[in-house]
Amino acid sequence: MRTIILGIGNPLLGDDGVGIRVAKELRKHVKDPDVEVDETTTGGINLLDQIIGFDKAILVDTIKDKSMRNGEIKRLTLGDLSSYHSFNPHDVGLPEACKLAKRLGETRIPHDITIFGIAVNKMQYEFWEGLSEEISKTVPKTVDMIMSELNHHKNQVEEI
Amino acid sequence: MKAVTIDPITRLEGHGKISVFLDSDGNVDNAYLQIPELRGFERFCQGRRAEDMPQITSRICGVCPVAHHFASTKALDACFHVEPPSAAKKLRELMYMGYVIYDHILHFYFLGGPDFVVGPDAPASQHNILGVIDKAGLDVGREVIKHRAYGQRITAILGGKATHPVCGLPGGVSKGLAKEEVQEIKDMVRSCVDFAKFSLKLFDDVVLKNRDYVDMIKSDPYNLETYNMGLVDAHNKVNFYDGIVRVTDQNAEETLRFSGKDYTDYISEHVEPWSYMKFPYLKKIGWRGLKDGKTSGVYRVGPLGRLNAADGMATSLADKEYKRFYETLGGKPVNSTLAYHWARLIELLYAAERATELINDPDITSKHIRNPVGEPGEGVGVVEAARGTLIHHYEVDKNGLIEKANLIVATTNNAGAITMSVRDAARGMIKKGVVNNGILNRIEMAFRAYDPCFACATHTLPGGMPLELNIYDKNKKIYKTIKNF
Q1: Among the four residues A120, B200, B232, B252, which has the most C-beta atoms within 10 Å?
Q2: ipTM score for this prediction
Q3: Taking CB atoms and an 8 Å limit, are B458 and A127 in contact across chains?
Q4: Mutating which of B37, B459, B467 best tests the A interface, going by the most A Cβ atoms within 10 A?
Q5: pLDDT value of position A58
Q6: How far apart are CA B118 and CA B132, in angstroms?
Q7: Which residues contact B91 (CB under 8 A, 6 or more apart)?
């Protein structure tokens, strides 16, 4: 099963770059040649372009949800989101992009799109590099969650 | 005074907020658009290596990476006192046309199109690209996706990566074109010219043949008589990549003409206490508040601003459309905000035609694509981003490190005009406290036309884009809430 892990965010906007940091860290752990790790600062259709052709996509991104505390990590599927907006305001959300692609007959959309959302409660409007203390703690935790997600899937495939 | 707050803005999912204040009769007293600005960029850049700026600035925003990349590269040309070889300029401009092609297609069909193709009063569930292809057909949808991808592909071939180009260097570009790439681009741009013609025909059939839409375009709430600004070539034709900044007035006559490096002599920025946004205005005319007319220094940029500030398009098909545009809408300048959409399609045709010219130029495969740089200093780079004039200004020390950086981005140049358009639309649409979803969308249409680009970094969950309208009674208690979701 070909899998892509995509860290999403803008590393120039502090905590918004946590997805990118997770991707960099994951590269040290992922050995499976069928798993690709990449980074991006885009969303919507451009994001769809990057995951098309893979069986599974794992996205790592910051999210804002009043019910979550800062630094909380949630595993979500695309269906949990009615819309999913990334850095690019000049675009549609990923669910809308997927719906559109399906409607137009695209068959290479990953059948499994999983999102690891890291809650960042403070809006990142200031240019700075690096992560706050609280958010940097989420990096190893998210890496662990993604690695066990990958192993879980691998085991499932072997059982079949 | 009752306050009406619309937050957030659908499909421009930054965190913009429109506040509409009603008077005691329920009519609109005033309206404000608030957009959070990204802060601290100048400090962030200080001490960085100048040649890193095209990469850093292309990450400011996922919307206009190519525009920032080249405004920055051109500023570096100036900082390092180097003129790129002709082939390098053509490669940059060709890549730029790829960006204009995908950006304009995306805006027309995904963001602006639903208002016209599906209709301004359509329910939110239909008011999107899926609604557009339900109406226009799957084949049209496929063509939209295909040609948008062509634009991306052209920027990727020339820029290394479509989203974060790495090709721009002071004095030139890092990569030339291979023969097989030339053929691929030729095929794509030929198809883009046809698609642009098709899009203009669609606009004709759907919008111009519909009397209600034409009346709406020409109606007062969507009319604004500001100055217009854009880059023009030596013949005063629209140019995205290079040229002189030209400003025309309410009679379409040239008011100002200046080189990018002198922008501080011509543009000042006004600060309002209620907004993080700065409001640029023409220094020589002066700031008279959020007003249009000849005595107010507010100006517009972007597709309509560019067309109004020029004397025509530099390619033949687009120039014909340019003439038809002014004939149809009653002469020059066109002051209707909704005409931005039509102007955008004329520019799409121009970009495809210009890309065709560039790719057929034998010079485009030249190996001479970079000149050596001189001593570092100060420099300004100006390009036309899809949504308007974009200025980068750097001061570089003798070690090649950034001492000062200043940017004026397109949406900032449009800040005054966008705010006025929202206010005027609200005044025209909300009477005696009667507000419904259709009216809200018609207010949004006033700023959507500009294709504004808001700071947007963190994402919302579950991510629905609720448009909520709260109407407060005189005790500031909500007595009515309208949602479009």
Answers
A1: A120
A2: 0.87
A3: no
A4: B459
A5: 96
A6: 6
A7: B158, B167, B173, B176, B177, B364, B369
